[in-house]
Structure of Proto-oncogene tyrosine-protein kinase ros:
Amino acid sequence: MHSDLDGKHMKPFLRNKNDKCFCPYNLLEASSMQIDSTNIAKPLMYWTLKDSLIATDIYGCGCNQILSAGNQTFFNYLTIDKTNIYLFSSSEQLIYVLNKKYALLESKEDASRHLQKVPISLPNIYQVIALDGSLQQYPQTMCLIPKKKDYQVEVLNITANSIVVSLPEPIPNSGCEKYKLATTIYIISVSHCLDNNRNEFKEYNVQTHKRHYEIQNLTPFTEYRLKLALSNFYVNKLSLDLQFGADVTLRTKPGKLNAPEIVTVQVLTPTLAAVYWMPPKKLNCAAVNYEVYWISVLFPNDARKITFQKPPNKLINNLEHTDDGKVFTKIQLLPGQEYLVYVRVYPGNFSDFFTDSSNKSINMYSEPNNLTLSGVSTNGMNISWIPSVNLTIHYILEYKSDAMPKWKEVYKKNNDTKKNNNTKKNNDTVTYYIEDLLPRTKYKFRLILRYPEYMENFIWPLDERFIFETHGKQMETLPIKT
């Protein structure tokens, strides 16, 4: 059979559908076969059949018996050089030499009388090889490899996930222009940033034999650096160093990034929640914007958001980081409401290419219970309050009049009067007994609270909803302590 180099268009040798190409000799019984490309315009193929030498063109259309040496001879192997055909008979320990001018496809006479016999005295020979320099005349090493220079890729097309490049023809070294180089191996070094904060880079190589190549599976809106080196079979065989050219720096087009991962929301106080997430995979230092959205279940059309940029922009809110690589921010919400929270990411200023995380549902803590005036006199008040069970881990009551320069804690010792402000707890209710107040004076009250997951003070309320007034001196005093 014969076919193209890729195995396609396979055809029977010396036979076709119309039997126009015919040879009476069976190629399957051949002992040895060689293709002679000395005359590149008309290459021939020779093979041995017992004591015979057969010639045919490489298209397998007709053949010619060049010689028959007689039944006592069996040709085990043949080889050729520029001038001669060499036929080896192991049984006779002879090499038969025939000049190729007597072995043409159109030759009419039996060429046996032109054979020369060369005896071999060495035992156990099974194969002979012609070492005529004309068969494989290697040039010097520098002519086998491409010239070392700074080759560069030419960018043809850029998408969000791929880069198509054109690769240059190799240049032969000076004085080697008449030689054709072996197939070029193009080695492209691809590198990109992994982390803006650590300035880490990832580099890998791709290789091809084609002049046009598409680098695939890239990340949108990411800066890549491409370097090119040329190699071939002989560069690899001789273990020569590669010379990479200068960087070609470019950025892939914007496209949708992977969604933020492992989004969690933690309620901190009745009005504050923390949103945590892991950055998308394969972010590769791309400048991205994050937007945290929250939607009240009671008011689904009233979506709110806050925007962040990474790397940070002075005009946009900055993100905080945890030790395990997560980023987070805090958002202000309303007490006692249920919310849906999700995180959106998009490259740079291309908000059309956004990707959202899944929704996370949270229920905010209710507001603390109200402060109640449970007793009052001209110089004292009783304030009662019920703490939230298993929610507030620390609480302080403070009060202040318009004349007081700052807030004062209820339970602290009064150094002027040497008296203690007392508190008592009865079941779930805490009652504060406040003394040494001024008559007919309004006092504002607030709580300083601590919640389990938030180590900062939560001041409640921020407005002045709890204002109580002491009695005047002419009024009868109510009992304060019980």
